[in-house]
Amino acid sequence: MRTTLFAIAAASLLATAAQAAPATYAIDPTHTFATFEIDHMGATTNRVRFDKKQGTVEFDRAGKTGKVEVVLDMTSVNSGTAGFDKHLQSADLFNVAQFPTAKFVSDKFVFDGDKLKEVTGQLTLLDKAQAVTLKANKFNCYPSPMLQKREVCGGDFETTIDRTAFGVNYGVDWGFSKQVRLVLQIEAVKQ
Protein backbone atom coordinates (compact mmCIF):
# COMPACT_ATOMS: atom_id res chain seq x y z
CA MET A 1 0.00 0.00 0.00
CA ARG A 2 2.81 2.38 0.91
CA THR A 3 4.53 1.67 -2.43
CA THR A 4 1.31 2.43 -4.31
CA LEU A 5 0.87 5.77 -2.51
CA PHE A 6 4.49 6.64 -3.25
CA ALA A 7 4.02 5.76 -6.94
CA ILE A 8 0.86 7.91 -7.15
CA ALA A 9 2.61 10.84 -5.44
CA ALA A 10 5.64 10.51 -7.73
CA ALA A 11 3.44 10.37 -10.84
CA SER A 12 1.53 13.44 -9.66
CA LEU A 13 4.78 15.32 -9.03
CA LEU A 14 6.12 14.39 -12.47
CA ALA A 15 2.88 15.49 -14.14
CA THR A 16 3.06 18.85 -12.35
CA ALA A 17 6.71 19.29 -13.35
CA ALA A 18 5.85 18.50 -16.97
CA GLN A 19 3.11 21.15 -16.96
CA ALA A 20 5.52 23.75 -15.54
CA ALA A 21 8.10 23.22 -18.29
CA PRO A 22 8.77 26.24 -20.48
CA ALA A 23 6.86 26.41 -23.75
CA THR A 24 8.54 27.43 -26.99
CA TYR A 25 7.05 30.16 -29.16
CA ALA A 26 8.04 31.30 -32.66
CA ILE A 27 7.89 35.00 -33.39
CA ASP A 28 5.12 35.84 -35.84
CA PRO A 29 6.69 38.37 -38.24
CA THR A 30 3.27 39.58 -39.40
CA HIS A 31 2.38 40.66 -35.84
CA THR A 32 5.84 41.82 -34.78
CA PHE A 33 7.15 45.32 -35.42
CA ALA A 34 10.61 46.65 -34.59
CA THR A 35 11.06 50.41 -34.86
CA PHE A 36 13.33 53.16 -33.65
CA GLU A 37 12.86 56.87 -33.15
CA ILE A 38 15.49 59.59 -32.99
CA ASP A 39 15.17 63.34 -32.53
CA HIS A 40 15.98 65.34 -35.66
CA MET A 41 17.58 68.59 -34.52
CA GLY A 42 14.79 69.34 -32.04
CA ALA A 43 12.35 69.93 -34.89
CA THR A 44 10.89 66.49 -35.66
CA THR A 45 11.29 62.81 -34.88
CA ASN A 46 12.61 60.35 -37.44
CA ARG A 47 10.78 57.00 -37.22
CA VAL A 48 12.15 53.91 -38.93
CA ARG A 49 11.18 50.23 -38.95
CA PHE A 50 12.79 46.91 -39.80
CA ASP A 51 10.65 44.85 -42.16
CA LYS A 52 12.36 41.49 -41.60
CA LYS A 53 12.72 39.94 -38.17
CA GLN A 54 12.68 36.48 -36.64
CA GLY A 55 13.18 34.81 -33.31
CA THR A 56 12.01 32.52 -30.57
CA VAL A 57 10.71 32.83 -27.04
CA GLU A 58 10.74 30.27 -24.26
CA PHE A 59 8.25 31.12 -21.54
CA ASP A 60 7.34 29.37 -18.31
CA ARG A 61 4.27 31.17 -17.04
CA ALA A 62 4.13 29.25 -13.73
CA GLY A 63 7.84 29.75 -13.06
CA LYS A 64 7.79 33.36 -14.31
CA THR A 65 10.92 32.75 -16.35
CA GLY A 66 11.79 32.98 -19.98
CA LYS A 67 14.31 33.40 -22.75
CA VAL A 68 14.04 35.39 -25.93
CA GLU A 69 16.10 35.88 -29.06
CA VAL A 70 15.07 38.41 -31.70
CA VAL A 71 17.14 38.95 -34.84
CA LEU A 72 16.62 42.02 -37.02
CA ASP A 73 17.65 42.00 -40.67
CA MET A 74 19.38 45.38 -40.88
CA THR A 75 19.16 45.34 -44.69
CA SER A 76 15.37 45.62 -44.30
CA VAL A 77 15.51 49.08 -42.69
CA ASN A 78 12.58 51.14 -43.97
CA SER A 79 12.12 54.86 -43.34
CA GLY A 80 9.74 55.33 -46.26
CA THR A 81 12.43 57.23 -48.14
CA ALA A 82 14.81 55.24 -50.36
CA GLY A 83 17.70 57.73 -50.07
CA PHE A 84 17.51 57.75 -46.27
CA ASP A 85 17.32 53.94 -46.19
CA LYS A 86 20.48 53.77 -48.31
CA HIS A 87 22.27 56.12 -45.92
CA LEU A 88 21.10 54.12 -42.87
CA GLN A 89 22.54 50.98 -44.50
CA SER A 90 25.88 52.68 -45.26
CA ALA A 91 29.11 52.49 -43.25
CA ASP A 92 28.17 55.89 -41.74
CA LEU A 93 25.45 54.23 -39.68
CA PHE A 94 24.47 50.51 -39.67
CA ASN A 95 27.17 49.25 -42.08
CA VAL A 96 24.91 46.42 -43.27
CA ALA A 97 27.52 45.11 -45.70
CA GLN A 98 29.64 44.05 -42.73
CA PHE A 99 26.93 43.67 -40.05
CA PRO A 100 23.68 42.51 -41.71
CA THR A 101 21.89 41.65 -38.46
CA ALA A 102 21.28 43.01 -34.99
CA LYS A 103 20.22 40.75 -32.14
CA PHE A 104 18.56 40.98 -28.73
CA VAL A 105 19.05 37.98 -26.42
CA SER A 106 17.62 37.68 -22.92
CA ASP A 107 17.20 35.06 -20.24
CA LYS A 108 15.77 37.35 -17.55
CA PHE A 109 12.08 38.19 -17.28
CA VAL A 110 11.18 40.44 -14.33
CA PHE A 111 7.65 40.22 -12.89
CA ASP A 112 5.71 42.38 -10.46
CA GLY A 113 3.27 39.82 -9.13
CA ASP A 114 1.74 38.22 -12.23
CA LYS A 115 2.53 41.20 -14.47
CA LEU A 116 5.62 41.12 -16.71
CA LYS A 117 7.51 44.31 -15.90
CA GLU A 118 10.66 44.06 -18.04
CA VAL A 119 12.97 41.84 -20.04
CA THR A 120 16.70 42.30 -19.53
CA GLY A 121 19.35 41.13 -21.98
CA GLN A 122 22.06 42.01 -24.47
CA LEU A 123 21.59 44.01 -27.65
CA THR A 124 24.25 43.38 -30.28
CA LEU A 125 24.63 46.00 -33.01
CA LEU A 126 27.71 46.48 -35.20
CA ASP A 127 29.26 43.53 -33.34
CA LYS A 128 29.12 45.43 -30.02
CA ALA A 129 26.98 44.05 -27.18
CA GLN A 130 25.44 46.23 -24.49
CA ALA A 131 23.07 45.46 -21.61
CA VAL A 132 19.54 46.62 -22.39
CA THR A 133 16.30 46.49 -20.38
CA LEU A 134 13.06 46.44 -22.36
CA LYS A 135 10.18 47.87 -20.33
CA ALA A 136 6.94 45.93 -20.85
CA ASN A 137 4.06 48.32 -21.52
CA LYS A 138 1.68 45.45 -22.32
CA PHE A 139 1.92 41.66 -22.13
CA ASN A 140 -0.69 38.96 -22.52
CA CYS A 141 -1.15 35.36 -23.63
CA TYR A 142 -4.37 34.28 -25.34
CA PRO A 143 -5.86 31.44 -27.40
CA SER A 144 -5.82 32.79 -30.96
CA PRO A 145 -9.15 32.43 -32.76
CA MET A 146 -7.24 32.75 -36.07
CA LEU A 147 -4.89 29.84 -35.27
CA GLN A 148 -7.32 27.17 -34.04
CA LYS A 149 -6.98 28.39 -30.43
CA ARG A 150 -3.17 27.98 -30.34
CA GLU A 151 -1.65 30.08 -27.58
CA VAL A 152 -0.08 33.38 -28.59
CA CYS A 153 1.92 35.57 -26.19
CA GLY A 154 2.85 39.11 -26.97
CA GLY A 155 3.52 42.58 -25.72
CA ASP A 156 4.74 46.09 -26.34
CA PHE A 157 8.29 46.78 -25.15
CA GLU A 158 10.54 49.83 -25.27
CA THR A 159 13.90 51.17 -24.20
CA THR A 160 16.20 54.08 -24.93
CA ILE A 161 19.82 53.48 -25.85
CA ASP A 162 22.88 55.64 -26.41
CA ARG A 163 23.74 54.79 -30.01
CA THR A 164 27.37 55.88 -29.57
CA ALA A 165 27.87 52.89 -27.21
CA PHE A 166 27.55 50.76 -30.37
CA GLY A 167 29.79 53.00 -32.47
CA VAL A 168 26.94 54.71 -34.35
CA ASN A 169 28.37 58.23 -34.10
CA TYR A 170 27.24 59.84 -37.35
CA GLY A 171 25.96 63.40 -36.90
CA VAL A 172 26.65 63.68 -33.17
CA ASP A 173 29.14 66.50 -33.82
CA TRP A 174 26.39 68.37 -35.71
CA GLY A 175 23.93 68.07 -32.83
CA PHE A 176 22.03 64.91 -33.76
CA SER A 177 20.85 63.08 -30.67
CA LYS A 178 22.76 60.16 -29.21
CA GLN A 179 19.55 58.86 -27.64
CA VAL A 180 17.46 56.43 -29.68
CA ARG A 181 14.11 55.04 -28.56
CA LEU A 182 13.62 51.39 -29.55
CA VAL A 183 10.09 50.00 -29.70
CA LEU A 184 9.37 46.29 -30.12
CA GLN A 185 5.82 45.02 -30.52
CA ILE A 186 6.04 41.27 -30.53
CA GLU A 187 3.66 38.31 -30.80
CA ALA A 188 4.85 34.72 -30.75
CA VAL A 189 2.93 31.50 -31.42
CA LYS A 190 3.29 28.43 -29.21
CA GLN A 191 4.94 25.56 -31.04
From TrEMBL:
Lineage: Bacteria, Pseudomonadati, Pseudomonadota, Betaproteobacteria, Burkholderiales
Name this polypeptide is given: YceI family protein
Pfam family of the protein (one): YceI
UniProt key word Cytoplasm: no
Organism: Acidovorax bellezanensis
UniProt keyword list: Signal
Keyword Cytoplasm (UniProt): no
Record-annotated Lipid/polyisoprenoid-binding YceI-like domain positions: 24-189
Domain of life of the source: Bacteria
PANTHER family: PERIPLASMIC PROTEIN, PROTEIN YCEI
Signal peptide per UniProt: 1-20
UniProt cross-references to InterPro entries, sorted A to Z: Lipid/polyisoprenoid-bd_YceI (IPR007372), TTHA0802/YceI-like_sf (IPR036761)
